[in-house]
Amino acid sequence: MGEIRNFRSGNQDEPPPHGGVGPRRLAAIIVGDIASYSRLMQADEEGTHVRVKRIERDLIQPSIVEHHGALVKTTGDGFIAIFDSPVEAVRCSIVIQQNLIGRNASLPKDSRIEYRIGVNLGDVIIEPDDVYGDGVNIASRIEGIAEPGQVYISGAIYEQIKHKVVCGYESLGDRKVKNITDPVRVYRVLPDADAIGRTRGRRENVLIFLLSITVLMIATGVLWYLLVQPGRVGEQAAAPTASPVASPSPQPSSREAAVQTPQPSPSLASSPAPAPSQSPPPLREPEMIAIRGGTFAMGSNDDPTERPVHQVTVKPFSIGKYPVTVQEWNECAAAKACGFTAIGKDNAPITDVSWTDAQQYVAWLARTAKKPYRLPSEAEWEYAARGGTQTKYWWGDKLQPGMAGCKDCGEFAAEQPAKVGSFKPNPFGLHDMGGGVDQWVEDCWRRTYQGAPNDGSAWTGGDCSSHVLRSGSWKNDSRYVRPSNRDGYDTNVRYPTHGFRVALSP
Fold this sequence. Notes:
By secondary structure, this protein is α+β, with helices and mostly antiparallel strands. The protein has two domains: about 5-200, 2-Layer Sandwich (Alpha-Beta Plaits), CATH 3.30.70; about 290-505, paralog of FGE (formylglycine-generating enzyme) (Alpha-Beta Complex). The protein is built from 13 helices and 19 strands. The strands form four sheets. Strands 1, 2, 3, 4, 5, 6, 7, 8 and 9 form a nine-stranded mixed beta sheet that branches. A four-stranded antiparallel beta sheet has the order 10-13-19-14. A four-stranded mixed beta sheet has the order 17-16-15-18. The relative contact order is 0.09.
């Protein structure tokens, strides 16, 4: 199968230096390869070819570009890409794998296209349409030992990203790989930061499950005895004793007297009493704050994505006083309207949700409460976050401790976000509009505000493979908690720091 050559470096008309050898550079290299490719081609050659090309076109190439990488080449069953940033290389790998999970969900297991991905940091030789060196070879060897659907990284990558990418890592130890002299330290990437504990505790979870089943069976037996046996005793007490001659009965003992007290008829005694009807608990709607609306200067000159600064007029609306909590999310999950049940404290913000997950929640909430709940637009979110101010932060131009939950905000550093409302509200009475959790909004992601609407509405249409996130999280530093800060992330991919809050039209 032919290769797609997409990599370019420097002036392609100039000959490479050093006697025909291309320049060297330090790069993060991704090598991806399709598991069981030969079997898939044998089963359906044309269909597999079309599906692979579609994945390359619609997922792999856009993801690489979105994460500031360069596609070196694609082969029949894989691809190679390089990145200046190890963080972006790993994020790109996670996005590709999680999107493939969604694509494969409805397919039979033996028809799924699954990639193994290896990532390494190394010094490589750059050619106009290829890349060479031990850095590439190690990435290829790591990919070869990866499980389908998994991302494995080298120790060199791990050292660069361990405090920068919010995910779990499982050390697989030093591995001897083909044609590489020294062993390579290998880690498995777990996008869910809690997954490492679940992986290690799988056997214990099975034992706990079996023990729970045993206890449940014993409890069921005891309950059956308590419900059925009194009815049988009542039947025996009500049965007359056959005696041809009446004789005085001895005084019954206290225990016999208790048995001989009037009993309900056998038919009623043997039937359990009907359980009282249980109505579902009332819907717990998020607490909302009414915003009067007005005109403000949206954006800043602190970052290219926040330019140009432009005037926006926002209409009146309401927005959640806090981000949506675990308890509120789990009501949607209990109604089978949201995709998973969250684990954590009830008053903690929901995390690890995609934009699509957030839309499921607001659709359920609007339907159940019969109110027009939705995600806020990006303009509404910033207007609400500023609280009527135009300073760097809503409280002023300098960082102050105790005002937001972020990595360097002075009084807060933890492995999970604080409960909602742990920090002071802004002038509009809103909590956690900066820090805590990243918050999805309605708008599609665009790199600048050029052409953005000025009426406060969401900027949709066009390429919506990514959506906008606001607020920054407890894992980010203080520059992310600015009201003007913005970022984009893949629409269908969950990430451990991502949450949301709801809005309500008048």
